[in-house]
Specification:
Number of strands: 8
Low-confidence stretches: none
CATH topology: Peptide Methionine Sulfoxide Reductase, Chain A
Mean pLDDT: 95
CATH architecture: 2-Layer Sandwich
Distance between the termini: 30 Å
Helix content: 25-40%
Radius of gyration: 15 Å
CATH class: Alpha Beta
Largest sheet: 6 strands, mixed
Strand order of the largest sheet: 7-6-1-3-2-8
Amino acid sequence: MERAIFAGGCFWCMVKPFDEQPGIHSVVSGYTGGHVENPTYEQVKQNTTGHTEAVEILFDPALISYEELLDVYWQQTDPTDAFGQFEDRGDNYRPVIFYTTETQKLAAEKSKAELASSQRFTDPIVTTIEAAQPFYPAELYHQEYYKKDPENFARNHAKRAQFVEENWQ
């Protein structure tokens, strides 16, 4: 198994697209990139921990490549918005690809450059690519939220779903 970490706004909305892919062992909602050990949701949403909401994905590279995960990632985000994603605003919702190996870093940089040169978006691609830091799983009620409360998930996912439909399909 390999590990990938992506931040793209609300972690509730980032789980399902990866969870549905072949070769995915687990998708865990959590926090990373900050300076507070074992942060809580309440701390992170105060935007004082330096953490961003993210998902940690364990995957079988024989069944799905990191490059394929990058393709899924880009299509869940607005890569031109550095200050949050959709209705979720602030540094704790910023889009980041956290690489765990040098190979992942190079693949992420290549993927970002290809997206920028595709001219799909007129604004610059501002998603950052950063070295992975400790990942802290979120509280249990956040895990697989789309399965636990599909109606609330759909409400929280509405702007993202509209953006994806308009820009990626």
